[in-house]
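Notes from hallway chat w/ T.B., transcribed later so I don't forget. T.B. wanted the structure written out for a chain they're using in a teaching module, and asked if we could keep both sequence and structure tokens in one place. Agreed to drop them here.
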Amino acid sequence: MFDTPIDSSRATEDLLHALGDQLAARGETYTLAVVGGSALLALGFVSRATRDVDVLAIVEGHQFVSAQPLPAALLDAAQTVARDFGLSNDWLNPGPTSLLDLGLPEDFYERAQRRDYGPGLEVLFASRIDQIHLKLYATVDQGAGKHLNDLQALAPTEQELLDAAGWSLTHDPSEGYRSTLAQVLAHFGVDDGHLDS
């Protein structure tokens, strides 16, 4: 099985255009909300490679719908793209769609960066503000590494981090999470005591 990295904004664009073409050829149209490394690449916030495109949701009107499982037509189109580009079959995956369960940051939809990839595909990339929210949560929840690196690349302000921290606590209010959150905020020189003010 191939596992070619997605290593540039251009590569991300090429893949999504190819996916849009495959969907159009099947008479299908989708709007996807995308987060993570590929979204950061597409919007020029990072230059690191990633292995996949993280689908947060299928967008229907202004509503975010779980992407788990991916619809059959979308999955079929994605697997054709995987073969054509030498990618893993799960290069398009709904890994982060569980974030919908407890809610996205307020005004996520309105802030999203929209791009069309032919008649078959529109993508809503999470905005910088929302990526800060999601990357802070991922850093605390899953550990440092790429998530912390991405968060640093987004150069968040103190207020942006505090806003993101407040939101993340709605997903995990446990003492363990709060303790690790305080450590991550301290890494950025932010006092978590401001969360209570």
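Follow-up for T.B.: The mean pLDDT is 93. Might be a good example for the class.
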